[in-house]
Amino acid sequence: MADPYEPLLHVVLYQPEIPYNTGSVGRTCVAVGAKLWLVRPLGFQVDDHHLRRAGLDYWRHLAWEVVDDWAALGERLPLERAWMFTKYGDGGYLDASYARGDILVFGRESNGLPEELLANAQGRRLRIPTRPEVRSLNLSNSVAVAGYEALRQIGGGPV
């Protein structure tokens, strides 16, 4: 889908598995002015009714694109601006200095981002802290937490 606007942020879901999460992330992207990028393989079809249902009627306002792999994403976006969200982060998501056009990258629901992507992101790996009783946050919740902090710092959010 072509961008109807210049996005404030880019949100990348690396090989997402659950359509409900992706639909919810799409809704959050509309809310914060981000473009959603999906990196294949996907655990669902992009025409999945669960995806559309979770995104509700907001999906028609979403700027989104599917790419075949990480290399294809790198041809479209400056990956040196990518913040990688992982429980193995170098610092907390509040420690980052976000800028307009930054890329927020999130991994698969089952096992996160692969080590080969994280190895190339020294100093750009971020974690969202949780209590020890919680292994991780839901993907859509993580995108909302990070997206709104980035938007707060950018200061150019939607009204």
UniProtKB/TrEMBL annotation:
<keyword id="KW-0819">tRNA processing</keyword>
<keyword id="KW-0963">Cytoplasm</keyword>
<comment type="function">
    <text>Could methylate the ribose at the nucleotide 34 wobble position in tRNA.</text>
</comment>
<dbReference type="GO" id="GO:0003723">
    <property type="term" value="F:RNA binding"/>
</dbReference>
<protein>
    <recommendedName>
        <fullName>Putative tRNA (cytidine(34)-2'-O)-methyltransferase</fullName>
        <ecNumber>2.1.1.207</ecNumber>
    </recommendedName>
</protein>
<dbReference type="GO" id="GO:0002130">
    <property type="term" value="P:wobble position ribose methylation"/>
</dbReference>
<feature type="binding site">
    <location>
        <position position="136"/>
    </location>
    <ligand>
        <name>S-adenosyl-L-methionine</name>
    </ligand>
</feature>
<dbReference type="GO" id="GO:0005737">
    <property type="term" value="C:cytoplasm"/>
</dbReference>
<dbReference type="InterPro" id="IPR029026">
    <property type="entry name" value="tRNA_m1G_MTases_N"/>
</dbReference>
<keyword id="KW-0489">Methyltransferase</keyword>
<feature type="domain" description="tRNA/rRNA methyltransferase SpoU type">
    <location>
        <begin position="9"/>
        <end position="148"/>
    </location>
</feature>
<comment type="similarity">
    <text>Belongs to the class IV-like SAM-binding methyltransferase superfamily. RNA methyltransferase TrmH family. TrmL subfamily.</text>
</comment>
<dbReference type="InterPro" id="IPR016914">
    <property type="entry name" value="TrmL"/>
</dbReference>
<dbReference type="Pfam" id="PF00588">
    <property type="entry name" value="SpoU_methylase"/>
</dbReference>
<dbReference type="GO" id="GO:0141102">
    <property type="term" value="F:tRNA (5-carboxymethylaminomethyluridine(34)-2'-O)-methyltransferase activity"/>
</dbReference>
<feature type="binding site">
    <location>
        <position position="107"/>
    </location>
    <ligand>
        <name>S-adenosyl-L-methionine</name>
    </ligand>
</feature>
<keyword id="KW-0949">S-adenosyl-L-methionine</keyword>
<dbReference type="InterPro" id="IPR029028">
    <property type="entry name" value="Alpha/beta_knot_MTases"/>
</dbReference>
<dbReference type="GO" id="GO:0141098">
    <property type="term" value="F:tRNA (cytidine(34)-2'-O)-methyltransferase activity"/>
</dbReference>
<feature type="binding site">
    <location>
        <position position="128"/>
    </location>
    <ligand>
        <name>S-adenosyl-L-methionine</name>
    </ligand>
</feature>
<dbReference type="InterPro" id="IPR001537">
    <property type="entry name" value="SpoU_MeTrfase"/>
</dbReference>
<keyword id="KW-0808">Transferase</keyword>
